[in-house]
Amino acid sequence: MRLLVTGGAGYVGSVVAAQLLEAGHEVTVLDDLSCGRRDSVPDGAAYVAGDVAAKAGEVLAAGGYDGVLHFAAKSLVGESVEDPRAYWEANVGGALALLAAMREHRVPRLVFSSTAAVYGDPQTVPVPEDAPCRPANPYGASKLAADHAIAGYARAYRLAAVSLRYFNVAGAYGRYGERHDPETHLIPLVLQAAAGQRDAVTVYGTDYPTPDGTCVRDYIHVADLARAHLLALDALGEVIKPGTWRVYNLGNGDGFSVWQVIETAERVTGRAVPVREGARRPGDPAVLVASSARARAELGWTPTRPALADMIADAWAFLTESAALTRLPA
Ligand SMILES: NC(=O)c1ccc[n+]([C@@H]2O[C@H](COP(=O)([O-])OP(=O)(O)OC[C@H]3O[C@@H](n4cnc5c(N)ncnc54)[C@H](O)[C@@H]3O)[C@@H](O)[C@H]2O)c1
Ligand SMILES: O=c1ccn([C@@H]2O[C@H](COP(=O)(O)OP(=O)(O)O[C@H]3O[C@H](CO)[C@H](O)[C@H](O)[C@H]3O)[C@@H](O)[C@H]2O)c(=O)[nH]1
């Protein structure tokens, strides 16, 4: 298929773009490099620099596109509380501009990066797709708004679309991994502390109603997550008919606490992780664990690297093999 990947210079988008190329698809990446890197765009993909809202129409006007995978977004929860305008503009404005361009140029398939953040603090875990959506911050709210827009466009304009709601993405895929600046995600921060690249990692809250008092999350390997995109793409137009929008939660169904992540990282790296205990981070649910039964049943998706230690080992290999290698203290 001929595919547009927005945000393909970022963490998840670059891994998906790499897997799409390996599967024989033709890939164009559209990315403004606001938080991605040019050298994360896989060789073999065409690259267009620019903002989705401004450039998607121009790219799709070339014609012949079979689908779009839309990763480009702003995705820092705290920042979204401080500056909601940027989140509504980028995440909803970007999605609306993309949908309009897809409609105009008759692109029939869309895979959208949604998020567990649309559920807010869930009443039941594991969280199924029909759980109530009560986002606790503008990031989750903007993603949910985009989901609704996609649903309406699919129904009215015969688009086949899926929203994949990722839980906590981790690990790396060969030369593609997490290189955010600033970094806010737990596993890369823990590994940077293990590597001596930061003095310590702060545990955000030790008084949650969980077995060890720290937040519990469902970590999913980025390579497994990426494969779900390829399976969803195959299903679009066939199993998921034009005029249909379908949601899939993606996680492993197992929860790990912040302390468990730190202990596993110490075991995997053989290094101590300096830790500071801090206050709760506003907006963090105590427990977020996915039910991915629907993705397994309907897409035939099975995670191949569900073990937390494997995800951390792959992220550690990525960190130590990247440019930081030369500066890694013994
Ligand atoms: N990483 C996670 O744990 C996680 C969890 C749930 C959902 N998601 C969603 O998955 C998607 C990818 O996440 P990620 O972690 O790879 O993020 P990322 O920041 O690494 O990648 C996003 C990419 O999009 C680009 N971009 C942002 N705004 C753009 C715009 N307006 N026009 C063009 N390019 C733009 C950035 O430069 C970057 O390369 C996002 O939509 C995010 O909301 C991520
Ligand atoms: O320095 C840190 C960073 C994180 N944490 C804790 O570690 C857990 C994981 O935090 P991350 O920032 O790695 O991930 P989130 O759970 O906040 O966010 C992820 O899950 C969200 C769903 O709520 C969204 O999908 C979001 O895009 C995605 O990154 C949380 O309990 C957080 O409080 C710490 O203790 N210290």
TrEMBL record:
Family annotation (Gene3D superfamilies): NAD(P)-binding Rossmann-like Domain, UDP-galactose 4-epimerase, domain 1
Keyword Transcription regulation among record annotations: no
InterPro entries recorded: Epimerase_deHydtase, NAD(P)-bd_dom_sf, UDP_G4E
GO MF terms, alphabetically ordered: UDP-glucose 4-epimerase activity
EC numbers, comma separated: 5.1.3.2
Cofactor(s) of this protein: NAD(+)
Pathway(s) of this molecule: Carbohydrate metabolism; galactose metabolism
Occurrences of domain NAD-dependent epimerase/dehydratase (ranges): 4-250
Keyword annotations from UniProtKB, A to Z: Carbohydrate metabolism, Isomerase, NAD
Reaction equation(s) it catalyzes: UDP-alpha-D-glucose = UDP-alpha-D-galactose
Single GO BP term: galactose catabolic process via UDP-galactose, Leloir pathway
Record-linked NCBIfam families: galE
Subunit text: Homodimer.
Alphabetical list of PANTHER family matching this protein: UDP-ARABINOSE 4-EPIMERASE 1 (PTHR43725:SF53), UDP-GLUCOSE 4-EPIMERASE (PTHR43725)
Recorded family membership: Belongs to the NAD(P)-dependent epimerase/dehydratase family.
Record-given protein name: UDP-glucose 4-epimerase
